[in-house]
Design goal:
The chain is built from 9 helices and 20 strands. The protein is α+β, with helices and mostly antiparallel strands.
C-alpha cells in the first residue's frame, strides 16, 4: 500500500517502475519504503519504520514469495489504482537487514530523528552501503484505475480518477472531498458571481458561515498529458507562473464579492455568502515542497497580499489542507460550542499568522491537542 500525493502517484503510474528501499536507522531499527524516480537528482522516498510484527511478517513473506499487489492511495485516502508486481527481496542483503533489526517503538519521535540522520548522511554520501539495500521493481505491466464517486452534502456527485484527462478538475474534486464535510450544506463548486452585464466564476470552491467565507483557487500541473516527464525544477517554474495568476484572480474575485453582487451555484440557486467578516483565500497547489526555495513567496509576500485583498491568504497543497480539516474536527469534537467550520476558520487564522514569518510557503502545522499548535519545519 503506497500513500502519496496525487502528483507523486502520477509519476508512478506514468513511469511504471520504482525501487524498494531498506535502511538501517539508529542502532537496530529498520526503515523501509518506496523510491519514486520523479526527479533525476532528488527522487521521492516514501518511507515508514518497521514497528509491528505484521510488518515484519509481510517482509519475510516477500522474501519467500515476491508476487504481490500494489495499491495506490491519495491524500483523501482514496484507493485510485492497483497493479500486480514482483518485489524480489530474496537477496542476502535484504535478509541480513531484516533479521538483524528490532521493531521500533510505535509513533516514537526517536525513530523520526533516526531517519532524519539517515537522510542527512545519504545526502552527503556518507551512509554505509552495508546498511542500505535498493531493490529495483521490474516494469509494472499495467496500472488498473479505481474510479470513486463521493456524493457531496449538496447531493451532487464528485468523481475521482487519477487517470482523468482533466487534471485540473481532478484537483478541484480532491479538494471538495476534503472540505465538504466541515459544513452541513457543503461546499459550492464553481460559484458564479453575477456582475453587471456578465456572469463569471468567482472561485473554484466556496465555503461560507456566519463568521466568514473561504474562497479556493486550484492550480495544478499537467503530468499525464506530457510526452516527457518534467523534473522538479521545471515543475516549480510552471507552478510559480500559476501562483501569480491565481493570486490576481482571487484578489479580483474578492473585490467583486465585497461589491455585493449575487452569488449562485451552477444550477442558478442563490448562495448566501458572509461579506462582513474577513474572508480566507486559499491557493491550492499540488505539492508545497515545490516552493521550498521560493523566498519571494515568503512572509513579505503574504503580508502584501493580505493587505491588498483584505483577507487571510494561504497557499496549501491537498496534504496540508487535509491536516487543516483534521485539526478542525479534533477541536470541534472536544468542544461543546465550536462547530467544525468555526474551528477550521480559527486554525487557518493561526496558519496565516505563522506564514508571515516564514521564508517560503513550504511549512507544515500540526495540532497536538486543542490549544497547542506545533509548527513542523519541512526539510
Amino acid at each position: 500500500m503506497i500513500k502519496a500525493s496525487n502528483l507523486t502517484l502520477k509519476y508512478l503510474v506514468r513511469l511504471r517502475r520504482f525501487r524498494i528501499v531498506l535502511l538501517r536507522a539508529g542502532a537496530k531499527w529498520l526503515g523501509y519504503g518506496v523510491e519514486v524516480p520523479d526527479d533525476p537528482e532528488h527522487p521521492a522516498l516514501l518511507w515508514s519504520m518497521l514497528e509491528t510484527e505484521d510488518e515484519l511478517g509481510a517482509l519475510r513473506m516477500l522474501m519467500e514469495s515476491p508476487k504481490c499487489t500494489v495499491f495506490l492511495f491519495n491524500e483523501a485516502l482514496a484507493n485510485v489504482a492497483w497493479a500486480e508486481a514482483e518485489l524480489d527481496l530474496s537477496s542476502g542483503g535484504v535478509r541480513d537487514l531484516v533479521e538483524s533489526s528490532s521493531l521500533a517503538p510505535e509513533h516514537d519521535s526517536r525513530a523520526m530523528l533516526a531517519m532524519q540522520k539517515v537522510f542527512a548522511l545519504m545526502e552527503d554520501d556518507r551512509f554505509p552501503s552495508a546498511e542500505r539495500v535498493f531493490v529495483d521493481v521490474p516494469n509494472v505491466t499495467a496500472w488498473h484505475p479505481i474510479h470513486s464517486t463521493y456524493i457531496t452534502n449538496r447531493a451532487q456527485p464528485s468523481p475521482l480518477s487519477i487517470f482523468a484527462e482533466d487534471e485540473g478538475g481532478q484537483q478541484e474534486e480532491l479538494a471538495l472531498w476534503l472540505i465538504d464535510g466541515i459544513r452541513p450544506d457543503g461546499a459550492v463548486k464553481s460559484p458564479q458571481i453575477h456582475e453587471p452585464g456578465k456572469v463569471r466564476e468567482l472561485s473554484d470552491l466556496l465555503l461560507s458561515h456566519e463568521f466568514g467565507a473561504f474562497l479556493f483557487e486550484s492550480k495544478t500541473l499537467s503530468i499525464l498529458a506530457r510526452d516527457d516527464l518534467p523534473s522538479r525544477p521545471k515543475l516549480t517554474r510552471a507552478l510559480v507562473k500559476h501562483l501569480d495568476k491565481a493570486t490576481g484572480q482571487l484578489v479580483g474575485g474578492l473585490k467583486n464579492l465585497q461589491r455585493g453582487y449575487t452569488i449562485t451555484d451552477l444550477a442558478g440557486n442563490e448562495v448566501e455568502v458572509n461579506r462582513t467578516h474577513l474572508p480566507h483565500v486559499v491557493i491550492l497547489v499540488p505539492d508545497l515542497s515545490l516552493l521550498s526555495d521560493e523566498q519571494e513567496y515568503g512572509g513579505a509576500f503574504f503580508a502584501r497580499i493580505m493587505e491588498e485583498a483584505g483577507a487571510f491568504f494561504h497557499i496549501l497543497d491537498p496534504a496540508e489542507l487535509l491536516r487543516m480539516v483534521q485539526a478542525a474536527n479534533i477541536i470541534a469534537e472536544r468542544s461543546e460550542r465550536v462547530t467544525p467550520i468555526q474551528a477550521f476558520d480559527f486554525y487557518l487564522m493561526e496558519r496565516a499568522k505563522l506564514a508571515l514569518n516564514k521564508p517560503s510557503p513550504y511549512f507544515g502545522m500540526l495540532i497536538r491537542r486543542p490549544g497547542e499548535i506545533t509548527v513542523v519545519e519541512n526539510e
